[in-house]
Amino acid sequence: MATQNYIILFIYYVAAGQNNLYEWVRDHRVHHKYTDTDADPHNSNRGFFFSHVGWLMMKKHPDVIQKGRQIDMSDILADPITAFGCKYINPTENKFVAFVALGEGWHNYHHVFPWDYKAAKLGNYTLNLTTMFIDAFSKIGWAYDLKQPSEELVRTFVMKKGDRSHSLQSVSHPNSKMD
């Protein structure tokens, strides 16, 4: 019964739209530890509106961020229901989505190089039919000024920021050919 009640309360909390539960608990703990100081995310010295609603609409004071990093949150991280509520939406590579969406499943790449017309590191049309259409329109003059990063830039980014989940050979993306 306690788990069901907890889940119901969790659903009501999520519906309230006050960040994810992990952030709320952390901010609430900081609030009680540093009440009415710059480290208090709900600092009432910043006014009635700020302390009740405004804190949700503004950037946190640097002291809130610093003190928040020092709060023990291990109990929250260990709770499976709370952890479920903290799964952030992150861009990801997905072959199924790429296939169904004709090449739009390479979201990590798109977020790193949003100006690349191919929206993918692939140099062929296997799972990126959208690129094939854009290339075809380019050949007849309907698409132009197509931008893409150099192979060297992609390699550099992979080496500095990549998670090592793919080989550098998969990064290679020579200009695609229609033949």
Question: How would you describe this protein?
Answer:
This protein has 179 residues and is mainly alpha-helical. It has 2 domains: 2-84, no CATH class; 95-171, no CATH class. The chain has helices at residues 2-16, 21-33, 48-52, 62-68, 74-78, 80-84, 95-100, 107-112, 129-139, 151-161. The chain starts with a helix and ends in an 18-residue tail after the last helix.
SS elements, strand count: 0
Low-confidence stretches: 168-179
**What coarse outline follows from CA principal-axis ratios?**
elongated
Distance between the termini: 64 Å
Radius of gyration: 23 Å
* Main sheet makeup: none
> What is the tally of helical segments?
10
Secondary-structure blueprint of this entry?
Layout: H1 2-16, H2 21-33, H3 48-52, H4 62-68, H5 74-78, H6 80-84, H7 95-100, H8 107-112, H9 129-139, H10 151-161
Labels describing this entry:
single chain, 179 residues, mainly alpha, 47% helix
Summarize the structure.
By secondary structure, this protein is an all-alpha fold. The chain is 47% helix and 0% strand.
